């Protein structure tokens, strides 16, 4: 136990102190040899090095320690059988963290921004909490058979350094960061942040792919023109996208829309643009598998973006959000929607509006982490077992 404590502390100390701690740990190991806490067969199967069995965390990059069905050299989340879940840097699924999207097929990126929020703030802490809860997400999708880490090289590339005091400038920073991601050929899976962030993301995505189709899950259409005189906020992104030609309006579907309104016909703008609006009432007490079969036909083989506002799910399941609306989707329906996108030419995804301080259980962020994993599982190129 003493060796494990020294080794763990060495990861948190300055380099010189860490080296001294490692030397002391090695000396203790020589003086008092102990049996490894892992069975020999398990260590052999994992390919663990002596330092790993001594308690030093080495990330299983390049598939190290993780059998892959197709012999992939992808980054693979470490198994909780070998690395304790609370150990290590807090990244999405404990994946390797790198500074850019170069060399990866899909990347998780955080945008900790809530300056565009109209009601309860706090979504700036969404990416951090989603990462923390994502330790419960494992390598394979047992329901669909998807093996994303055997198929794609995936990493967490950290957060966009937004300007919390200037929303237009934050949009510029988000757009430029996603331009670099898209130019590298990587598919971004973005952790929000409020829904404002989808506007600059789609600016970058459309620059690379042209106007895209949109699968939008939300309680709100987010097609307002202004709020308090401002054109940019979390209630306006998709109107801005329409105005700039970023969306193929004939291939836009909005699912789970509900709630009271300031307008007697709140969906008129959307329908005038050619959007398909699926109110929450049309989803109650039914499977959404038939709906998604229709959506796949509507989207065809052209590029599609998925934007999932966590308030699309009923607040009984996801209370940790800024603008909750009653009578929403269930988590099972959320899974049906995302899994129903399998086979589409998905070029980007986001999961927004998780505000963790309104859900002390962490369940909203846990749901968000799982939905992001499901998005990863339906990306083009992901094989099934």
List keywords for this structure.
alpha/beta; 14% strand; 13 helices
Any overview of this molecule?
It is a single chain. This protein is an alpha/beta fold. It has helices spanning 2-10, 15-31, 40-46, 50-53, 126-133, 148-151, 167-183, 198-209, 237-243, 268-273, 289-299, 331-339, 363-377; strands at 106-111, 154-159, 187-192, 212-217, 247-257, 276-279, 303-309, 345-352. An eight-stranded parallel β-sheet has the order 2-1-3-8-7-4-5-6, with helices on both faces. Helix 10 links the parallel strand 5 (247-257) and strand 6. The chain starts with a helix and ends in an 8-residue tail after the last helix. Mean pLDDT is 87; it is low at 4-66.
Measured as a percent range, the helix fraction is: 25-40%
Beta-strand content bin: 5-15%
Number of DSSP strands?
8
Distance between the termini: 39 Å
Q: How can the largest sheet be summarized?
A: 8 strands, parallel
Rg result: 22 Å
Categorize the overall geometry: globular
- In quaternary terms, these chains amount to single chain
Strand order of the largest sheet: 2-1-3-8-7-4-5-6
The residue-averaged pLDDT reads: 87
Report the uncertain regions.
4-66
DSSP helical segment count: 13
Report the structural category.
alpha/beta
SSE ordering: HHHHEHHEHEHEHEHEHEHEH
Quick summary:
It is built from 13 helices and 8 strands. The chain has helices at residues 2-10, 15-31, 40-46, 50-53, 126-133, 148-151, 167-183, 198-209, 237-243, 268-273, 289-299, 331-339, 363-377, and strands spanning 106-111, 154-159, 187-192, 212-217, 247-257, 276-279, 303-309, 345-352.
């Amino acid at each position: 136990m003493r060796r494990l404590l020294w080794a763990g502390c060495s990861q948190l100390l300055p380099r010189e102190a860490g080296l001294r701690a490692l030397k002391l740990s090695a000396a203790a190991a020589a003086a008092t040899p102990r049996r490894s806490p892992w069975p020999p067969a398990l260590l052999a199967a994992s390919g663990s090095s002596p330092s790993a069995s001594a308690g030093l965390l080495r990330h299983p990059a390049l598939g190290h320690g993780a059998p892959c069905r197709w012999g992939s050299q992808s980054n693979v989340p470490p198994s909780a059988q070998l690395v304790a879940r609370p150990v290590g840097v807090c990244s999405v699924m404990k994946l390797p963290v790198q500074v850019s999207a170069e060399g990866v097929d899909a990347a998780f990126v955080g945008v900790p921004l809530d300056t565009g929020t109209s009601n309860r703030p706090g979504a700036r802490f969404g990416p951090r909490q989603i990462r923390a809860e994502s330790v419960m997400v494992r390598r394979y999708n047992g329901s669909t058979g998807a093996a994303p880490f055997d198929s794609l090289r995936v990493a967490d590339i950290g957060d966009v350094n937004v300007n919390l005091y200037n929303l237009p400038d934050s949009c510029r920073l988000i757009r430029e960061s996603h331009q670099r991601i898209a130019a590298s050929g990587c598919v971004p899976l973005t952790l929000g942040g409020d829904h404002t962030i989808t506007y600059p993301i789609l600016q970058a995505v459309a620059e690379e792919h042209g106007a895209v189709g949109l699968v939008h899950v939300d309680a709100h259409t987010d097609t307002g023109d202004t709020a308090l005189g401002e054109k940019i906020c979390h209630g306006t992104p998709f109107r801005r996208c329409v105005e700039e030609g970023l969306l193929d309006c004939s291939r836009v579907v909005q699912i789970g829309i509900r709630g009271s309104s300031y307008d007697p016909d709140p969906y008129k703008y959307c329908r005038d643009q050619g959007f398909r609006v699926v109110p929450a009432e049309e989803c109650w007490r039914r499977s959404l598998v038939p709906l998604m079969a229709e959506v796949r036909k509507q989207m065809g083989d052209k590029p599609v973006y998925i934007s999932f506002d966590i308030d699309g799910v009923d607040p009984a399941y996801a209370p940790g959000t800024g603008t909750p609306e009653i009578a929403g989707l269930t988590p099972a329906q959320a899974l049906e929607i995302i899994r129903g996108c399998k086979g589409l030419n998905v070029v980007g995804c986001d999961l927004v509006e998780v505000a963790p301080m309104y859900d002390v259980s962490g369940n909203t962020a846990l749901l968000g982490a799982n939905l992001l994993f499901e998005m990863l599982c339906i990306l083009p190129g992901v094989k099934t077992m």
